[in-house]
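G., before I forget:
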Amino acid sequence: MDYDTWLSADPFIWTQAEKEQHFLLWLKELTAYHCQHCPPYGRAVHLLEYDDTNVQSLADIPMLPVSLFKLAELKSIAANDIFKVLTSSGTSGQAVSKIILDAATAQHQQLALSAIVRNFIGPARLPMLIVDTPSILHDRETFTARGAAILGFSMFARHRVYALTEQLTPSMAAISDFLQRYGGKPFIILGFTFMIWKYLCLALEHTTPHLDLSQGIVLHGGGWKKVQELAVSAQEYSARLRQQFGITRIHNYYGMAEQTGSIYVACEYGHLHASIFSDILIRDSRNFTICPPGKQGIIQVLSPLAASYPGHSLLTEDVGTLLGVDDCPCGRKGKYFSVDGRIPAAEIRGCSDTHEA
Amino acid sequence: MKHDAITVSAGTWPIKSHILPPFSPIVCSFLEALAEGIRQDPFLKSDTACSALAFWLRRRHLEYFQSLVSAAGSRLGRGTIFHIAPANIPILFAYSLIISMLAGNNNVVRISERAAQSVHPLCALIDHLWQQPRFQCIGQGNALIAYDRSRQITDSLSAACHGRIIWGGDESIAVIRHSPLAARAVELAFADRYSLALFQPSVMTHWQKDEWELYAHRFYLDTYDMDQNACSSPKLVIWLPHTDQDLTTLQHHWWDAVAGAAKDYDLAPIKVSRKYTQLWQFAVTVPEIKSIQRQGNDLYVYTLSSLPDDITRLAGTFGQFFQYEAQRWEQVISILTQKIQTVSVIGVPAKQLRQAIIANGAAGCDRIVPTGQAMEMHIIWDGINMIEYLSRVIS
């Protein structure tokens, strides 16, 4: 497959039909490649009776459950080709996902991320106000998905300023200084969804006059568990940022360490878009049939970027809804969808793991 | 003894001791009233676990239990039993309490915070009955309590009781054992176990459609009904050697019938997510798997070419089964290690299996039941007659 042309293309140029035509071929190739180079993956795919010749559509590509990266080390490269190991705690907060990257995969993922984000914020590197504490990057113990997200996005920043103190209170001096210097022109406000809500919106609720962040472009995502605890709808969230700070450009993003780079960013209509670097399928949980638009199901993510590890087709632990294909009023082609949260953890019966002493 | 952190959902705290002989009339009439109360309450009646409890409490069944207790006329309860009930099978607290009451004891039952909400209606009924004047004496001698993780409370309850019953995983048991018992106190620890099913295929060759459905439904009750998470739910099916017909055909027939029985199973998305992850985990980590058959996400069946050294690793949930065709009868006995609790059978006489276990001195298997009864609570549990154990004989 020709990565170079692909990686330099407009990330929302392909219609769904065009994307599927390319992806079907590439993902079949990748499945065969990983079967050969990652023996545990190959064994599982074989046991699941996958047959290359029966693949009619993207839905027929085997999908690996995303948690498997917490339970087994899966890679399709030799040990001395390892460039970077990404870790992510995921939901449970216990086991850690290990994603093994070689230099080429890491670079391709960066390029994809760059192309996607620039499509929303423009080509220039902008000053960035990070709604987090500076120690998020320094403290090795707490280096988490939050830190990783900040690092990943920092390539779009000209100057980085942290908006919160160590105690997670707004750092008014730092914010004022930032606004004085950069507040008159577009800048980025980056943070976890719940952090922006809790430590900016709620913390500054009674501070008058309200800060003028009207030139800010908000990029927010992640931290599902805490977002669900907030019980704030996407509409309320945006309305609040507009009222309180005058912010009009608000982009939610959805992504995961297991498919870094190919993130999904919400357009001005609030729709998350799949770029040419990845695609999504919504699966009915009972039998994994594909849900039609409007029907909620488990999100599967597919990306040909995952070359050094068998993560090109993953069943996530998130639920979402396909909203439409090729016809978002924002003009971006391909699928657009909503993420509705984590799969709800229902009560599960059983007699082990019973007692909290 | 004062504990601010203890909340009492039924009975009296602190309790007032009334030690009774086993199967005392007042306890039996309370249990009768409890069963009746469940049947009268539309909510409890519709709850499968509660209505099963009411059925379990029928008079004939209790009389049968009584017949299993030796020297019944010379026994008295030990005193106060402290129960630590499990979270994931909420109803089990009631069986633990009832069996100990039948032995003649006073009881302090710690209900897990996680289970508290789901058992609240049943606790409310128990409390309502205990407050009636006719059951005053048991109401004063028993308490259903809850408390946050607190070593201090577990310590003092353990030190004060005459017996302790722990339902839990091996780790939980180890943690609770940090709280010492009095020198003469006894303990029952029901740890993690593993259970399997043993099928004689030759009986299936004569089955009609009704029988396939009946046995598959019974198997469903043993497994899916508790998300296959209970210690006594079979996770591995051993097929005895079969000579006169192709076993694979019979196996397909069996699993088709099981999938049919499971079609109304509440397969919530979270269960699918965990089940599908386990599917891949097994595929990647169990080299003995020869093939995998799936019926949607309702049923996953793993066929083994040989048995791993530790079969307890073969533990799927939400409708996942390993199957293996035994070469010889002796091979079956050899896998009955200490971890094995229940063997549920189709077409295998319990007597024959029991004698083989005894003759070979097998370390495990405490219980042989016909398929369909794996989940049924019994006063003999993990090889121990609980009523005898929780009472003393005055010789």
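Chain A touches chain B at residues 40-41, 43-44, 47-49, 64-65, 67-68, 71-72, 285-288, 298, 315, 317, 319, 343-357 (CB under 8 Å). The mean pLDDT of chain A is 89.

More on Monday.
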